[in-house]
Amino acid sequence: MLNDYNLTMLTDFYEITMANGYFQSEIRDSEACFDVFFRRVPDGGGFAIMAGLEQIIAYMKRLAFTDEDIEYLRGKNMFCEEFLEYLMNFDFKCDVWSIPEGYPIFPYEPVMTVKGPIIQAQFVESFILMQFNHQSLIATKSNRIVRAAQGKPVMEFGTRRAHGSDAAVYGARASYIAGCVGTACTIADRNHDVPALGTMAHSWVQSFDSEYEAFRKYTEIYPQNATLLIDTYNVLKSGLPNAIKVFKELKPAGMGIRIDSGDITYLTRECRRILDEEGLTDCKIVISNSLDEYIIRDVLLEGACIDSFGVGERLITARSEPVFGGVYKLSGIERNGEMVPKMKVSENVEKITNPGFKKVVRFYSKETGKAMADLIMLRDEELPDGKPYEIFDPNAVWKRKILEDYEVKELQVQIFDKGKCVYDEPTIGEIRNTCRDEIDKLWGSTLRFENPQTYYVDLSKPLWNLKQELLHKYSEQHG
Question: Domain residues for 406?
Answer without folding.
Answer: 13-138+322-478
